[in-house]
UniProtKB/TrEMBL annotation:
It comes from Flagellimonas flava. GO terms for molecular function: ATP binding; protein histidine kinase activity. PROSITE patterns: HIS_KIN, PAS. Keywords: ATP-binding, Kinase, Membrane, Nucleotide-binding, Transferase, Transmembrane, Transmembrane helix, Two-component regulatory system. The keyword Transmembrane helix applies. GO terms for biological process: phosphorelay signal transduction system. This is histidine kinase. The keyword Amino-acid biosynthesis does not apply. The chain crosses the membrane at residues 7-26, 32-54. It holds the Pfam family HATPase_c. Residues 229-448 form the Histidine kinase domain. Residues 110-149 form the PAS domain.
């Protein structure tokens, strides 16, 4: 409505100026000089009024936007004016001003809400720009680093020089573990970086968390599981030895007295020999068990080199072709030029072990399938997955599969998955599993 009235007044003024111009021309032609002079004065007045009219509206709108830019919402335009178009325009500007003010207040409230969440977060949060200036640091981060206030990452050198080097060399999407010793305690920090762009400025957001409690809990759980498995295996080996030894002793001792040689019969001697053979076998089994444990502790450091992912997977496919389940294995590598920086022998052994497990799990299925897949994620994280559609791993056993000597098979030492995980740790990567029984089981090797 305001703009329509504005245009109507503008058109009217232009028409009046046009009529005045015609009057000036006619007066000049008729030589009505007095009328000519009045028309010229009227023309100047109308042009001046038109310019003032247009500029007044432009200045009003310019003032309005300047006020919005400076977050000044106190500007009010008079609504009690005689010109209807100006009245409606002023009312519209005031309404827009009120709406923007309301949105601004809501944004401020929301910003304060988010700021409070960040301050109360149980993890440390810190952001800094390319020059190292810290733009935000919540109290949790300052407590973890035992330094306040944090204005520049160079201040971290006063906490720990190595910590400053870590922050200085942080790359986007990078994860770091850092053991920090402060005056109060020694903490284990797990840190992760994420790139941000704010107002055209590149920032790096770093979150940090003290994982000492979590590590202690995991370590305790690992020891409990390991001791439980060790106890089970050792007891299974020693119990027959103790039982047979007790039976043999009874052949040669009665009422705490040694039996005379002439009282021994051939059956007792044969049973004694059989018992000693069983004890020997059980002893050898126990020695093999200990040797398996030693192999877990003596994994050599990887001798890394650039290896083609496609060639690696094709090699595994050829090696597994001799297995009776060969028809179930498929390989996929995307992109085809994917490369890994690994110890090929160690990783090949890990993949063979995992593929063998997968093939064994689907060998009795009609549509059993194992997929060996390599790829790369958006964050430049390379991975290899072994996927099968076998019976899967029960939920109550999923946390036990990497425990040394734990196995659900009737044969085997249960050392394969533990050894595979150890190899991946030495490569700086990880080996994880997820399973949906009777649908899908995925062992994932991640390389960083």
């Amino acid at each position: 409505m305001a703009s329509r009235n504005f245009y109507l007044q503008l058109i009217l003024r232009v028409i009046l100026i046009t009529l005045t111009a015609l009057g000036i021309a006619m007066s000049f032609v008729k030589e009505w000089y007095f009328t000519f002079g009045l028309m010229v004065i009227l023309m100047v007045s109308q042009v001046y009024a038109l310019i003032t009219f247009i500029n007044r509206t432009n200045r009003k709108i310019a003032y309005f936007f300047d006020a919005i830019k400076n977050e000044d919402f106190t500007l009010r335009f008079p609504e009690q004016v005689t010109i209807k178009s100006f009245k409606e325009l002023n009312q519209s500007l005031n309404r827009v001003n009120g709406l923007i003010q309301e949105v601004h207040l809501q944004l401020q409230i929301r910003e304060q809400y988010y700021q409070e969440i960040l301050r109360q977060a149980s993890i440390g949060i810190l952001s800094f720009n390319e020059k190292g200036h810290i733009l935000f640091s919540n109290p949790t981060m300052e407590n973890l680093l035992n330094y306040t206030p944090l204005n520049h990452i160079k201040q971290l050198a006063q906490v720990d020089e190595n910590l400053y080097q870590v922050f200085q060399s942080f790359k986007p999407f990078e994860r770091r573990l850092f053991q920090l010793s402060t005056e109060r305690e020694q903490i284990q920090l797990a840190m992760k970086s994420t790139p941000l762009v704010l107002d055209g400025q590149s920032l790096l957001l770093v979150v940090a968390q003290d994982i000492n409690d979590e590590l202690d809990e995991k370590e305790t759980q690992s020891w409990v599981r390991l001791i439980r498995v060790l106890t089970h295996e050792i007891m299974n080996t020693i119990t027959p030895i103790a039982s047979i030894s007790d039976s043999i002793i009874k052949y040669y001792r009665t009422n705490d007295e040694m039996v005379a040689l002439e009282d021994l019969d051939e059956t007792q001697i044969k049973n004694t020999l059989k018992g000693l053979e069983v004890i020997k076998d059980q002893g050898n089994n126990l020695m093999d068990f200990v040797q398996s444990y030693r192999s877990l502790l003596s994994v050599p450091d990887p001798n890394k080199a650039i290896v083609s992912g496609k060639a690696l997977l094709e090699k595994i496919e050829v090696l597994m072709a001799a297995k009776p389940e060969k028809s179930s294995l498929e390989v996929s590598c995307e992109p085809s030029d994917l490369e890994f920086f690994i110890d090929e022998k160690q990783i090949s052994q890990v993949l063979i072990n995992l593929c063998k497990n997968g093939l064994q799990s689907v060998k009795d299925m009609e549509n059993g399938r194992v997929l060996l897949k390599a790829g790369i994620e958006k964050e430049s994280i390379k991975y290899i997955e072994i996927i099968d559609n076998g019976p899967g791993i029960p939920e109550d056993l999923i946390d036990e599969v990497f425990v040394p000597f734990f196995t659900t098979k009737s044969e085997g030492t249960g050392i394969g998955l533990s050894l595979s995980k150890r190899v991946m740790q030495l490569h700086g990567g990880s080996l994880k599993v997820r399973s949906i029984p009777n649908r899908e089981t995925v062992f994932r090797l991640t390389f960083v």
